[in-house]
Amino acid sequence: MGFQQLLQVVALLTLIAIGDTSWTMEACNPNDLEALLSFKNGIQMDTSGRLAKWVGQSCCNWEGIVCENATSRVKEINLPGFISSGEDLFQTQMTGWLSPSITLLTSLEVIDLGGLVGLSGTIPKTIGLDLPKLQKLYLYGNNLTGPVPENIGELQNLQELALQENRLSGFIPMNLGSLKNLKRLLLYSNQFSGIIPVSLGNLINLVELDVHDNALTGNIPNRVGEMLALEKLDLSNNLLSGKIPFSLTNLTAISVLYLDTNYLEGTIPFPLRSGEMSSLSFLRLHNNHLVGNIPSNMGYLVSLQRVSLSNNKLEGALPSSLGNLVSLTEFYLSVNFFSGQIPKSIGQLSQLIMLNISRNLIEGPLPQEMSSLQNLQTLDLSFNHLNLSTIPEWIANMPSLSSIYLAGCGIQGQIPDFFQKTISPIQELDLSVNLLSGSIPSWIGSIDQLYMLNLSRNSLYSHIPDSFRNLQDLGVLDLHSNRLTDSIAPIFDMEQGISGGSLTFVDLSDNNFSNGIEEIGLGGQCDIQFLNLSHNLLKGRLPNSIGRLNSIHSLDLSFNELGTNLPEVLGNLTSLEILKLQENHFTGYIPIGFLKLIKLKELNLSDNLLEGEIPEGKPLIDFPESAYSGNKGLCGKPLSPCKL
Asked: Is-above-0.85 flag for pTM?
């Protein structure tokens, strides 16, 4: 054989060898192929179409599958529910069962089946024994049930475990504390019960622990303070009790700490010296039973941006060291027992956007330094012992302030004129439960971005200004319990900013309005969900146009002087849950269309002049006799049978 021929033979053998290697790379290990096909067979629907492409023997080429180069064993399953296409992100869905045969893929390092919504079943019982190489397990956002297998603690290479947003139950396995390489443990929004395992203190590399929205009980383990790499800890929305362990102040890397909505008690363990918890930016402790005061050393937490201590039993004066929290943007202290005056140092919080100190025992006067809060958008000082008498005029000069809540602050006199010339357009204004008198000024109609207006429980008189028709963005209007008179028409004649109108909540009850009932539904305000006109002097008949309020959930027209027949169109208001028409002069029959009000939970037609048989059927037969009493002509269930 000549040299040239020898080269040709060598080249041919090389090509054969390469071709054979290529075939090996594409082919599947038989166990892997069986496991993947079994997984596919458990899925009835795949809106992404990825599984439909799983055909043939070469599983390493299938979409979502990654194999090891050397062995052709499957090492990753990447079939997340959220798929990116360019700049867009859209969610797909798989309906079916998670096949336990997935544990045959013994070389797996990554399982990503998160966010598929319809994936049911349980976590395979042998997952911790069969997948020793597993590093990332994402099964979040599905419909999985049952417990987390105890042997999951055998996955010594596991770095991320994301099982959140399922329906998993049982205890959190104790041996999760063996997963020394674990960096993220996400179990939130499930149905886990029992205690937080003390063994989790062994997870010295854990960066994020999130178990919120479960039914966990017992104390927060003291050893949580040993998890020194922890940056986010969320134990909120559980049934935890006992004290917050002081060891948490050892968490030097912690940035997010959420312990809210539990049954925690005792005092708040703030750092004792500067530099501790220096990265803490987000702190939520609201909805607990915490006591004591805010000590001056809270001022050491210089990175704080958002703090919520609301709805506890905290007391005492607010320390002047709060002025050190110069990064603070949101501060919630409502529903506690804080007393004394607001410290002048609060004016140093130049980044503050939201300040809520409502429902405390804070006294006036308000410090002039508050006017320095150039970025403040929302201020809620409602229901304190401020006894302001008058509202400080500097409030109108705050350049970003758009939501003002000063309910129950002892404000007297007329509504101040300076509200019409604020630097920032007012969007929400609550001056309820004060001692305001005089008329509602017509200039309110010029606050064209006003969304919420609450002037209830004052001593305002006169009428609703016609200028209210200009408030095309108004969504919430509460004027109840004043001495207002004349017509309610301006409310229902408001200009439409959006189709169906902007109004969703209207309470004009406990006044002396006498007319305008005929305007309901005639204008553009047809998306009202709550309407209370009770305890007025309204006369006339209900217009058929009331049937245009298709979104209404609660309608209260009780204690007026309305009369004639109930309009049939009331039966078209199928979203109604509450209907109160008692103490009027309605006559005639109850419309048979009331049987269409299947969502109705509360009905009162008592003390009118109605007659005839109550239409038989649900929901009308489910209400007590008191719902129909005081109508001498009514009969039928639940009242006495009608006479033949």
From this structure: yes
